[in-house]
Amino acid sequence: MNNVGNNIKIFRELKNFSQEYMATELGLSQPSYARIESGKTVPKVDRLQQIASILEVDLSTLLNTTNSFHFIFNAAANQSGYIKNQTIKNIDVEVIRKIIQEELEKKGTL
Fold first, then answer.
1. How many other CB atoms are there within 10 angstroms of residue 26's CB atom?
2. What SS3 class is residue 86?
3. pLDDT digits (tens, 9 = 90+) for 21-53
């Protein structure tokens, strides 16, 4: 079952951020931050907003527990055809990285 902590972990990994980096940015210890990702600590909305800001995602994305994400890349990339919008179910970080890399390679931007 997907939860907010898992969503945070997924997007942290997509950004290649370490737990230590996130903890430092949030003014927390790494073990305290790890409890957020594991679901042992449920952060308040203001802390979730901080996390969303660091990860550059909407708060609603972190709160999405449907296990389905719709990735919309910036308008310039969409209009120029670099990356198409995709819905990904049962999200897997490596699958997402592969999809992004393949799309960029198709357009010769990698």
1. 16
2. strand
3. 999 999 999 999 999 999 899 899 999 999 999
- Is pTM, for the whole model, over 0.70? no
Query: How many domains does one find in the chain?
Result: 2
Residues 20 and 51 in one domain: yes
Strand partners, 71: 86
Residue 34 lies in domain: 4-63
| Residues 72 and 56 both lie in one domain | no
Q: Retrieve residue 85's tokens.
A: 């919008």
| 73 and 27 in a common domain | no
Query: Which residues lie below 8 Å from residue 61, measured CB to CB, with a gap of 6+?
Result: 7, 11, 52, 69
Neighbours of 74 (CB within 10 A): 9
Question: Helix (H, G, I), strand (E, B), or coil: what is residue 107?
Answer: coil
